[in-house]
Write a structure and sequence with these properties.
By secondary structure, this protein is of the alpha+beta class. Helix content is 20%, strand content 34%.
C-alpha cells in the first residue's frame, strides 16, 4: 500500500468520534445547481461528509437535459478520500448517467479527453439499488471517453464535478468524504499502536 493510499486510513483512526460534519446542498432548498461547465456552482466543503442532492436529466428523455456542475476546494492538509452514491431514484428502464471530475474551477463539457477522469454508472452496480456505490472507485479505474484517470485519493486543490443523465429524470444524493492528513506524530503513534496489536496477536 502506498503512503498516499494509507493516509485516509491513518487519518480516520486519528479523528475523534463525532468529529465528522455534513454539509448539504439540496437543489430544492439551496437553488438549482449550475449546468455550465465554465461557471459551476461553488460549494464550500468541510472535513467529513459533504452531501449534494439534486435532480438531473430529462423526464422521459424529452426536453432539455439538465446537467449539474459544481466546484469545490480541498484545503491544504486534507484529502478527498471518497465519493459515493447515497441515493439514486429513477424510473425503471435504461439509464445513461455519467460523471466526470477535473482538477480545475471549471470543466470542459465538450471534450472529455481534457478531464482528470470520468465514467459511467448505472443502478445495477452494487446490487442494492445503487445505495453507497463507490463512485471514486469507478473514476479511479478509468479512463472513460479519453479521460486521463487519476490515482486517488485526491490532494489539496480545486476540483469540478459534473453529473448528467441523458435518458430519464434522476434524483440523486452524492457524498464527498474529506479527511484531514494526520500530523507526523499522530501517524507515528498509530504505527506503534498497530505494531503492538500485531505483536499481541502473534503471542
Amino acid at each position: 500500500m502506498s503512503f498516499a493510499r494509507a493516509l485516509p486510513l491513518l487519518a480516520a483512526l486519528a479523528l475523534p468520534f463525532g468529529s465528522a460534519r455534513a454539509l448539504n446542498w439540496n437543489e430544492t432548498i439551496d437553488g438549482e445547481l449550475s449546468g455550465d461547465g465554465n461557471s459551476p456552482t461553488a460549494i464550500l466543503f468541510t472535513d467529513g461528509s459533504n452531501l449534494i442532492e439534486g435532480t438531473m436529466g430529462a423526464l422521459g428523455g424529452v426536453g432539455p437535459v439538465d446537467a449539474d456542475v459544481w466546484t469545490f476546494t480541498i484545503a491544504a492538509g486534507y484529502y478527498l478520500t471518497g465519493i459515493s452514491l447515497v441515493t439514486y431514484s429513477a424510473p425503471t428502464g435504461p439509464h445513461d448517467s455519467f460523471m466526470a471530475i477535473d482538477d480545475a474551477t471549471s470543466i470542459n463539457m465538450g471534450d472529455p479527453s481534457l478531464h482528470l477522469s470520468n465514467g459511467l454508472w448505472n443502478e445495477q452496480l452494487d446490487g442494492f439499488g445503487n445505495t453507497y456505490t463507490d463512485l471514486m472507485a469507478i473514476l479511479d479505474a478509468g479512463p472513460q471517453f479519453g479521460g486521463s484517470g487519476f490515482d486517488g485519493p485526491l490532494g489539496p486543490g480545486d476540483y469540478t464535478f459534473w453529473v448528467q443523465e441523458g435518458a430519464e429524470q434522476i434524483q440523486y444524493c452524492i457524498n464527498f468524504d474529506v479527511t484531514p492528513v494526520p500530523e507526523p506524530g499522530s501517524a507515528l503513534l498509530l504505527g506503534l499502536a498497530s505494531a503492538l496489536m500485531l505483536r499481541r496477536r502473534r503471542r
